[in-house]
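Why does this matter for the project? Reviewers at the last site visit asked to see concrete outputs rather than summary tables. In response, this paragraph embeds two records directly. Each consists of the residue sequence and, immediately after it, the corresponding structure tokens. Nothing has been edited or filtered.
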Amino acid sequence: MALLLLLAILPGSGCFLSCVKLSVDDPLPSLPFPEAEWITHISGTAKVCSLSIPGAHDSATSTLWTPVVDNFAKTQTLSIGELWDAGVRAFDLRPAVGGNGSLQIYHGPFSAHISFSECIGTILSCLGAHPGEFAVVLIRHEVEGDEGSPSWESLMREELSSLPGNRVRETFSPDLTVDDMRGRILFLSRNTYEGGPVGGYVTSWSSSSDLSAQKDCRIDSHPFWVQDYYDPEGEEGKWAAVKGMMDAFSSLGEESTVWCMNYTAGYVGGFLGLPSYEGNAVNVNLRAARYIRESVAGPLGIVMMDFAGALHFRGTPVWGDYLVKSIICHNAFQ
């Protein structure tokens, strides 16, 4: 039994984690310009909520490296800067109060060994190099990392207050345009903090598979549809939730001011019941990319995924590059 458990967590043993075997004959979608500047080629009058934006779930976990922790907490293989270059523009960051008293990124109880300020600094540098772009940063207090430290709120306010005002969108509005956002970060926080919000607060978050519950989420008082069914009953249940949100949101059309965040990310029970992010990605990322290209006419909103920009993880195809490019290509360019 110990040998089998070791095989389940060793790099390259992804074949244990999913029985789904998929391949794709289509070439990767291509753009006539670098992914690092794709928003630059979008009309400034387009509403942000009407775009299709690739995002990375637990964006700063590429620095996790041990085999055991990788299996439970690693959802990305690219750094924040590499995610940017791949075209990712929505970043899911989960800081907790670290042992040094500063905000450090965690996934559950596992430290990613990178600070919140380092992550934001990288995004700001990318914006400086590409001022026609913007970023959305979703913040969650990862209470498993600091046992719900009460100092999180003041530390978060200090972090956000220290940022240059011309690089931050101070207030959220549902009809924000691309020009409103160029060169800036929009912060959306699932937790309150002192003197906030800078950007907007997200309330009534749901991890349900039920579409009506997913539609109850709000940014301040504005509709923000969120599908975050992260612990589904099998791969088919997760795919049904992803597809259901794509169908519902895309049918609203470009005139709607509803915002949306649709997670292809999640995990399924792998070998010996171990959670498997890659097992879910093998199945759902490719199906989502194909469905976008073949069956979706309207906008997608923000699509949060595991292994964004990566084609493989531990020798297993996870289709993150294919999905990011399919989402970007779903936009209308000038």
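We now turn to the second protein, recorded in exactly the same manner.
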Amino acid sequence: MLTFLSSLIIGFFLAHFFIKQYSDYDGIKVSGIGDELFFVQYGVFSSVESMEENTISLQNYVYNIENNLYYVYVGITKDENNASKIVEYYKGLGYDTIIKKFNVVNKEFVKLLDNYDEVLKNTNDQTATISVINQVLIKYEEVVINGSQN
């Protein structure tokens, strides 16, 4: 009985330790399972200072830190055609971007993204396009990045 009880206590503390590591994570939260989303990447930078200098003209972005590099994303969508639309929008502004796929498990964000994707798909207005892009990035930061730390 003592062995069983000590195993439970040790297991609880180890689980708490591993979960705590992920709640302190500062970048884009992705997973191997979940909904596949298209992230439009603006660039990769070697330092936070370099990232901040090179993104000063952007209205909004999110970033991920991986292997001490800062990956900057300027758009998120579930629809590959919308991803291409976002790439074309930024190309028109003189920015080179690429599309990357990630799986995101946050169902609340994915559900919100459905609505934004529908609006983006049905508009050709540049003002509406950037408004939707910015709203998605803001919601991603609120719901996925900050929301999971509550």
